[in-house]
Amino acid sequence: MWFLVLFMICGLALVFVGFDGAGAGGGSASGLSGSAAKVGSHTISAGDLSQRINSSIEQYSRLFPNQDSSNNFVRQLSDPDRILDSMISDKSQLLFAESSGFKVSNEAIREFISKQEAFQTDGKFDPLKYRERLTQPGLYEERIREHLQRTSFIQELSPLLSIQSKNEEAAQKVLSQKKYFETLKIDSATFEKNIPEATSDEVAAYLSDAKNKSKVATRYEADASKYVKKEEIRANHILIRESEGGLEKIKEVQEEIKSGKISFSEAAKKYSSDKSNSEKGGDLNFFPRGVMDKSFEATAFNLKNTGDISEPVKSSFGFHLIELTDRKAASTTPLKDVENTIAAQMLKKDKAQEKLNDVTAKWTQTAPSASELSQYGAQWTALSPWSANAGNLQGFSEEDFDYGTLFKLKTNEIYPKAIQQGSSYAFVRAVAQPANSGSEDATKNLALNGTAAPDNATASIQSILDAFKTSLEKSNKIKKSNKVLNTIRRQFAELNR
User: Fold this and answer.
1) Nearest 5°: phi and psi at 433?
2) What predicted TM-score, i.e. pTM, was given to this entire model?
3) CA nearest 30: which of 484, 496, 497?
């Protein structure tokens, strides 16, 4: 036990040495660069790790001077892997605090700094001394923020979770306790159906505002492809399937047309295998690129003038002759022609969004009634059982929730925020444990044990943090650089020969 207490006391001292070193330059004597490890979005640099090791050696050497056995003890406590694991634990605790929405105010940081003796003169904070001591005050303050965010959150964790246990095993039961939730989703399209079209007066009033007019122009540009009409041609064709004479027959028909014995339209009626349009002279009406067989399309669009007739061309259907009868060039509908239409659509969407916002604000406070669910075609859907150490809730991401708040929801209580997912909003509520689910109610069992003593509460908190760290490891969100670590291990070994 004395070993653990000693390690914690010295570890606390190392925090402040590390802060001071980072603020005074942020590097290390080793000159290492790159990252030693990553924990989620947070990085532990090689320089920070090396500096923490050096600080550890210095601190523990003061406690155990001039004794070989003690020096071995110092080396054990300052081992690079041990120090890195400690730093990873710090970062995972920080990530836990951030994921729970816990923040530290700038005022708290200033208050903490002002109480450090290193920055005081005659017992009062000295801004000049602060600037003189630090070459990178921004980096120092960020380290302070991380430290306060971790430690303050841990102090508040026990009462927030209301853990009643006497040992670590009981805390694990809380973490693994199954919680049950339902979700329902609604989107703005649901509301648009029941909103009347904007009147001409409403559209005119909307467009009289320069900001709205700019929004309409932006929407027009974003949907530009909707207002572009591709080049189209109109053509007649004659098809002769291979089973009905193929290339030889189509050439005979071509000679009849060229000699003037028969018109293209009459030849289509007389010879074409495509009976869906042969009676109309083979008329295919207007069509753009990308509709017909590729070889047919290429030949048709290459015809230059109205009345031009192609050479025989083979498609997957057989052999064709094609006559160009009309052409429409590509065109773009100007903004002025569709401005009112776009404005009306935007007005309708805005009204739908306003209605949606009203509903989401209401439903996060009070569960929707059966008639409201029916009105909007929504229904609650059960999610897979969730526990605090099992990762994200089904269908949601890590960023969607303050999982501490989610954990504490009571039966039929709705999470106090609607989760936006694309154009939809999702609501989540806690529900009672389904019958015959086989899940143990850990909370009831824990209540029999009484309130935890301070030491046992600390062990419970540590258990929660360890479980969170384990979940990060399992989801591959903790990554170590073996290349950097091997370099630091060699340096450490050489230093202690």
Assistant:
1) -65, 125
2) 0.40
3) 484
Sequence-separated (6 or more) residues with CB below 8 Å from residue 122 = none
Q: What angle do CA 270, 272, 273 make, to 5 degrees?
A: 130
d(C-alpha 259, C-alpha 133), whole Å: 102
* pLDDT confidence band for 319 (50 / 70 / 90): very high
Task: Please give the Cα distance from 487 to 409 (Å, whole number).
Answer: 48
Q: What is the mean pLDDT of residues 450-477?
A: 65
Cβ proximity of 389 and 471 under 8 Å: yes
Two structure tokens written together for 256:
């009849």
Assigned token pair, 183: 């979700």
Task: Tell me the pLDDT band of 439, cut-offs 50, 70 and 90.
Answer: very low
d(CA 15, CA 89): 13
* φ and ψ at residue 377, rounded to 5 degrees: 60, 35
Q: What is the pLDDT of residue 237?
A: 96
Q: Is 397 exposed, middle or buried (0-12, 13-18, 19+ CB in 10 A)?
A: exposed
Enter the DSSP assignment of 334.
Answer: -
The CB-side HSE value for 60 (13 A sphere, CA atoms) comes to 23
Size of the chain in residues: 497
**Residue 167: is its pLDDT beyond 50?**
no
Does 271 score more than 50 pLDDT? yes
Extended strands (E) in 156-307: 180-187, 228-229, 232-240, 283-288
Could you give the 3-state DSSP secondary structure of residue 29? Answer: coil
Least confident of 55-59, 67-71, 391-395, 441-445: 441-445
Tokens of 469: 């760290």
Paired residues of 331 in beta bridges: 229
456 pLDDT exceeds 60? no
75 vs 492: CA distance, rounded Å: 9
H/E stretch holding 323 reads: strand 319-328
- Per-residue confidence band for 248, with pLDDT thresholds at 50, 70 and 90: very high
Across 2-11, 62-71, 132-141, 462-471, least confident range: 2-11
Name the CATH code of domain 2-173+451-495 (choices 1.10.1070, 3.40.50, 3.30.2220, 1.10.4030): 1.10.4030
**Three-class HEC string of 115-140:** CCHHHEECCEECHHHHHHHCCCHHHH
Cβ distance 313 to 250 under 8 Å? no
- For residue 466, count other CB atoms closer than 10 A to its CB: 17
In this predicted structure, the answer to whether residue 2 has a pLDDT above a threshold of 50 is no
- CATH fold, domain 231-329, is Chitinase A; domain 3 (3.10.50)
What would the two tokens of residue 87 be?
Answer: 């730093």
